[in-house]
Amino acid sequence: MPQPPKRPAASTVNKGVLHPRNRHQGRYDFAKMIKACPELASFVILNPYGKQSIDFADPAAVKVFNRALLQQYYGIAHWDIPDDYLCPPIPGRADYVHSLADLLAESNGGVIPRGANVGALDIGIGANCIYPLIGHHEYGWRFVGADIDATALASAKAILQGNQLTKTISLRQQPEPNSTFQNVIAPEDRFDITLCNPPFHTSLEEARSGSRRKWKNLGKLDSTRKLPVLNFGGQGAELWCKGGEARFVRTLAEESARYGQQVFWFSTLVSKASNVDGLEATLKRTNAVDIRTIDMSQGQKRSRLVAWTFLSPETQQQWRLTRWLKNAN
C-alpha cells in the first residue's frame, strides 16, 4: 500500500494525531509548496515562533494555501472557489476519507477496496469539491457529489473539468433544501460509502459569533485590520440550518433508512460531541444493524464521524463478493 511521502526530520513538529496515511504529517515544506504553486510565495509569513506560515485570517491566503496543498499532494492542477464560499482545512478532510477507507477494509478482510467500482456519495459537496478530489486520488473511488447550491455546483464542475475528472466524479443538484438522500439516490444506484459534513450552526449570527470567539482566542480582535466575518468562509447552507447540526444529522439518519439496501456504509461528521447520543438513538429506532463512532483530531480540534449500515451480515458478505472481490482480480 503506498505511503505518504516523508518530510525531512528538521521540518517535523507535532500537529495533532492525524491518520497514519494522511499526507499532512508534520510541518509544511513551504519551499516545495511554492514550487508547486508560485503564487503562495507572496502570502508566506513568519509566525511568532519564527516558522514559515500564512495568515489564516486572510481569506485570499487560505485559498492559495489550499490550492498549493492540492497541487503538491493530490495532483490537482486547477482549483478555485468563489469568494465567501467554504475553504476547508484539507488535513481534516483527508482524515475523514482515510477513516472511511479503514471502515471499508474492516468489511473486506482487512483490504481497502480500491478503484472506480467503489462508489461514494458526498452529501453537500460544496464549491470546493475536496472530498472527491482526495478520495479519487488516494483510492481511485468513483464519486457523486450533491448540493442544493447551483453556484457551488458550477464551481465544482469547473474544478472537475479543469482536471479531467468528469468521468469519475459527477454532480447532482438537490432540489429540496430539507432533503438529503431523497432526489439524489436513484433506484439503480449502489454506493459503498456516503460522506457528509453537516452545517453546524442554527443561524448565521451563531456562525458569526463562533468566528468572533475564534479570532478572540487567537488574539486577533485587537487588530486594526478588518477580519473576515466567517473564518474559512461559507455560505448559509454550508454553515447553518434550522435546528443546526443535531436536526440535520437526525434527518440524514431518518432518510438513510429508505435507502438502506443501496448503501453499504452511511456516514457523517459530528462536530459537537453532545449530538452523538441523539444520532445513535435515531439510528437504533430506524433499525441500523451496525453503528460506529470514530474519533478524529487535528491539532486542538476534536471531531468524530458516525457511520452506520442497514445491511445484514449475509447481505454484507454478498455485497463484498459481487462488488469488491469480483473486481479485485
From TrEMBL:
Enzyme class: transferase
Keywords associated with the record: Cytoplasm, Methyltransferase, rRNA processing, S-adenosyl-L-methionine, Transferase
Presence of keyword ATP-binding: no
Record-linked InterPro entries: METTL16/RlmF, rRNA_lsu_MeTfrase_F, SAM-dependent_MTases_sf
Keyword Methyltransferase attached: yes
SUPFAM superfamilies per record: S-adenosyl-L-methionine-dependent methyltransferases (SSF53335)
GO biological process: methylation
One of the record's GO molecular function terms: methyltransferase activity
Reactions catalysed according to its record: adenosine(1618) in 23S rRNA + S-adenosyl-L-methionine = N(6)-methyladenosine(1618) in 23S rRNA + S-adenosyl-L-homocysteine + H(+)
Main localisation: cytoplasm
Subcellular locations according to the entry: Cytoplasm
EC nos: 2.1.1.181
Summary of the function given for this chain in its UniProt record: Specifically methylates the adenine in position 1618 of 23S rRNA.
Similarity comment text for this entry: Belongs to the methyltransferase superfamily. METTL16/RlmF family.
Protein name as annotated: Ribosomal RNA large subunit methyltransferase F
Taxonomic classification: Bacteria, Pseudomonadati, Pseudomonadota, Gammaproteobacteria, Pseudomonadales
Gene this protein is translated from: rlmF
